[in-house]
Design brief:
Layout lengths: L1 H28 L5 E3 L4 E3 L3 E4 L2 E4 L10 E5 L4 E6 L2 E7 L12 E3 L6 E8 L4 E2 L14 E12 L5 E13 L3 E2 L11 E8 L5 H12 L7 E5 L4 E6 H4 L10 E5 L6 E6 L2
Antiparallel strand pairs: 1-9, 2-3, 2-8, 3-4, 5-6, 6-7, 9-11, 10-11, 11-12, 12-13, 12-14, 15-16, 16-17, 17-18
Length: 266
């Protein structure tokens, strides 16, 4: 019997010391169901996306902004750009603010498939030693909440984003709203952009990498019709006349998407 109590005591000690890590292990190893949430309205507010009624910040686990940009292209469409590539979100529905405010309201293209889901940790971890310096009750338990945005175009190109927020259980109040805590543990975990397999963008990226050696996050691809695209370099967009200088226009074979002609200085 003594050994049983010692074993239980050791398990409790491990749970108190490493409860969060154990929760993360279960979160990664075991699949479980998620709940669907509304995907509209959609907005970029300068600090992140607003999806339905949820504010999804672009803060990363290092307490810095995740390496991505949301801009509007020449066709008045929202575009998300990361080191992996660019993903065209959809038509912008609000005018550009003359004062420079960054908000962009946008809608999906016809035929786009979107989902926004939420799930929380299967197990919670105890926090009996948490102390609130500024007063107020401290949480007894914590758990993580995961939000996943998945967006797929008719072409097959897709965007996937995953956030990890935190909930706290306070006696007499219940679970708090999930929040980005800026505690090196919560935030935007990753962004995955998958271009259309074998499609136009993939052919352009291959050509630019082979002939120019530009990293993918140094430029964006803008459609100029069924067989032409503009490759806009980021340095040109910082100039007085965006699109001039290093940027170029490519003519493509409409069937194979292979580059047939290059025109510089677009």
């Amino acid at each position: 019997m003594t050994r049983v109590w010692i074993g239980l005591g050791l398990l409790l000690l491990v749970w108190l010391v490493a409860g969060r890590q154990i929760t993360l292990l279960f979160d990664r190893a075991l699949p479980w169901s998620a709940t669907s949430l509304p995907v509209t309205p959609l907005k970029y507010d300068g600090g992140g996306f607003v999806v339905g009624q949820f504010s999804m910040l672009f803060g990363s686990l290092d307490n810095q902004r995740f390496d991505l940009r949301v801009t509007t292209d020449a066709a008045n469409r929202g575009v998300l750009t990361t080191a992996q590539g660019a993903f065209t979100l959809g038509p912008r529905t609000n005018p550009i603010d003359s004062s420079g405010r960054p908000e962009i309201d946008f809608v999906p293209d016809p035929g786009d498939a979107l989902s926004f889901t939420v799930r929380h940790s299967l197990i919670n971890w105890p926090t009996p030693f948490d102390i609130r310096i500024i007063g107020g009750p401290a949480p007894w338990w914590k758990r993580y909440v995961y939000y996943r945005l998945f967006w797929k175009k008719r072409s097959g190109a897709s965007l996937e984003m995953l956030w990890r927020y935190e909930q706290q259980y306070i006696s007499g109040r219940g679970w708090s709203a999930p929040a980005m805590m800026w505690n090196w543990q919560t935030g935007l975990l990753w962004v995955k952009i998958r271009p259309e397999a074998g499609g136009r963008d993939a052919a352009v990226v291959e050509y630019i990498g082979r002939t120019k050696g530009w990293p993918r996050d140094d430029y964006r691809i803008e459609s100029r019709g069924p067989s032409s695209v503009a490759v806009i370099h980021v340095e040109d967009e910082r100039g007085l006349q965006p699109g001039a200088g290093m940027s170029l226009e490519l003519s493509l074979d409409p069937v194979t998407h292979q580059v047939t002609k290059e025109v510089s200085g677009q």
